[in-house]
């Protein structure tokens, strides 16, 4: 039993490390391609867990100068600059077409019943889109009751094909 628990702990620890590495790599890529129009951070995460996970090297991504808008449905914005309370599952983004260089969306789509609506909105307001999704092999991704969607590698390939200028990290 002890070995089983150690094994499960190692799997979830590795899963967390891979997820955090994907977030770091994707954020660096976002900053490199957003251009002067900047980033719309869709699902910036206003909750306590998101705040803990949102920090990299002591810097909160929501406060990076490239971020021109932080979007979340939770009204607790934790002092994030340029915060808009929007439920991206059903509410259009209140921005003009191609107003941003990049839409960044990390670990949000899997929580939405209407993720295509959100993708269409991100594509409308930004030149590029970066998605960070749970790995199709991730036990935490498949076991989470909070996830309404589970994206396979084939699903991700279809997303990239259907939504131009989209990069997916997992």
Architecture overview:
The chain is α/β, with parallel strands linked by helices and 170 residues long. The protein has one domain (2-169): Rossmann fold (3-Layer(aba) Sandwich). The chain is 38% helix and 21% strand. The chain has 5 helices and 8 strands. It has helices at 2-33, 48-54, 115-125, 139-143, 153-162, and strands at 39-42, 55-56, 59-60, 67-72, 83-85, 100-106, 126-132, 166-169. Strands 5-4-1-6-7-8 form a 6-stranded parallel sheet. Strands 2-3 form a two-stranded antiparallel ribbon. Strand 2 and strand 3 (59-60) form a beta hairpin. The radius of gyration is 16 Å and the shape is globular. The two termini are 31 Å apart. Mean pLDDT is 80; it is low at 2-21 and 47-59.
């Amino acid at each position: 039993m002890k070995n089983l628990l150690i094994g499960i702990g190692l799997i979830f620890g590795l899963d967390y490390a891979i997820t955090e590495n994907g977030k770091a790599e994707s954020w660096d890529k976002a900053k490199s391609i957003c251009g002067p129009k900047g980033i719309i951070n869709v699902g910036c995460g206003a909750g306590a867990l998101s705040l803990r996970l949102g920090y990299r090297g002591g810097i909160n991504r929501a406060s990076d100068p490239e971020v021109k808008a932080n979007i979340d449905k939770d009204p607790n914005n934790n002092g994030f600059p340029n915060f808009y309370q929007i439920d991206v599952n059903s509410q259009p983004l209140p921005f003009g077409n191609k107003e941003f260089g990049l839409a960044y969306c990390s670990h949000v789509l899997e929580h939405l019943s209407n993720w295509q609506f959100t993708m269409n909105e991100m594509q409308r307001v930004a030149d590029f889109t970066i998605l960070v999704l749970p790995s199709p092999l991730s036990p935490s991704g498949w076991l989470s009751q909070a996830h309404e969607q589970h994206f396979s590698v084939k699903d991700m390939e279809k997303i990239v094909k259907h939504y131009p200028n989209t990069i997916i990290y997992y």
